[in-house]
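Researcher: Here's a chain I'd like modeled. Treat it as a single chain, no partners, no ligands.
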Amino acid sequence: MKYLSLAVTLIGSFHFSQAQLTPHQSKEIEVHKGRDLSQETNKPAPVVNNSPVNAKALQFFIRKWKTGVTDAFYVTNNAGIQTMVVNVNARTKPLLINADGTYYWEAYGEQRRGRWSTTGKSDYPIILKNAIENKDWYVGRHEKGKNAIYIWDHNAISYTGVPM
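Model: Modeled as a single isolated chain. Structure tokens:
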């Protein structure tokens, strides 16, 4: 109660007529005027085919692929007993390779959109630039499957893909 009466006394002694408050003056809002993109004629840069692989061969890759980490098969020898170990293909999200030189791929919890280009090589004619794990991934036809691809980081990791 003692503190309440002190507060009332202090507030009561202050006269609002003595206060010099200046009201805030806001500035006029400037409206941003952007370009009308519907009138733009820019198109994505064409894919330059500088490889010995012809355009018809590249068409094989232009589609949506169901991808997965490559299968692994190996034999272990333990106390004279041989066992074949089979690691099945762990599925990841699809890879979409577009004709306009772009791609979209999800793997390792990452989502990447980017550009692809030709490599000039017949074994891996396409490279996905700055894709999963910030790596360039090489795409080639699977040698044992008519309708399958390898996706390789040019090191140790690879994926396989089949059309969706």
